[in-house]
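User: My instructor asked us to take a sequence, write out its structure as C-alpha cells, and then describe one feature of it. I'm not sure where to start. Here is the sequence I was given:
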Amino acid sequence: MSEVDGSPQVPQGWYYDGNGEVRWWDGRRWTEHVQPGVPLKAAVGANADRSADPKSERDAERQAIAARKHAVRAVVIDRRNAERREKEAAALAVREQKRVAKAAKQAQKESDRVAKIAAREAELAAWDRVTGKQVFMSSFGLTAIVLYENGYARFGVSLLGMTGEPGAPEKLLGAKTTTQVQDKSAGGRAVAAGMTMGLSMLASNEKRLIFLTITTDKQVRVMKAEGDMMRTVDKAAMEIVARAEALIEQSASLPIAVRQVAHNEEPGTKQADVIEKIRRLAELRDAGILSADEFESKKAELLSRI
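Assistant: Let's start with the prediction itself. The C-alpha cells for your sequence are:
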C-alpha cells in the first residue's frame, strides 16, 4: 500500500465496500462493477491471505475504509479544482470587463477632445470672418490686448510674460489714456531706499498711474499700471489707443457689405456721437455720479442705436 499526499493509496482490486457487496476499486474510486454473490471470504482471499480468519476480515475492512476515504478525498480535490477554475475564469472575466470599460472610456475621452478641438476651430474660423486679420497685440498691466483689422479686440490675461487664451471678440467703440500723479508715501520711499541702498532717493517723489480705458460693445474696461522713469508704460498705452482709434476709423470706412457682416451696422449710423456719449457716461460712473447699473442701462440704450 503506497501513500499519496500523506494518505494510504489502496491498489486496485475487488474489495468489500462495507455495504454487503464486493466492488471493484480502480485505485482512486469505486466503480459500478460488483460481485453480489461472492462471499466476504472470497473477496478477501482474492487480494490477501485466503484464510477466513478474523484478522483477514479486519484487514479487508480496513482496506475498504481506506478506499472509501480515498474516494471521498478524490471527490473533494476534484471539487476544489473545479471551484478554483471557476474563480479564475470569473476573475479573468472581471479583468476583461475592466479592460473593455477602460478602453471605451479612453476612446470617449479622445472623441470628446477631438470634438472640442473641432468646435473651437469652427468658433475661431467664425470669429475670423467677422474680425478680419490680427494686426496688433500688446499688454497693459495684467491684460493682454489683441486688435483686429475690422475694428474688433480680444482681451486675455497677461502675467509674467505668459499670455492666456483671449476671450470672444468685442467691437471697439473707443479708447483713451489718462495719467494721475500722486506723491509717494514716506514709508514707501523708506522701504525702497533700504532695498536700493539709498539710490531710489535720487528718483522723483511722484507716483504716476497710467489709466487705459477701452470701450467695446460688451463693456468699458479701465486698466491701470504704474508709470516708470523711461515712460515705457505711457508709450505702450498711447500706442494701444492710437492703434484702436485707427481701427475704429478704418472700420467705419469699410464697404457697407463688409461693415454689415463685421459690425452688424446700417448706413448712416452716428457711431462717433454714441461713442462720445458712452465715454462721458464712463467718466460720470468713474466719478461716482452714476451707478454701475445706471451706466450699463444707458450704454445698452445707446448701443441699440448703432
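For the description part of your assignment, you could build on this observation: The mean pLDDT is 76. Try explaining in your own words what that tells you about the chain.
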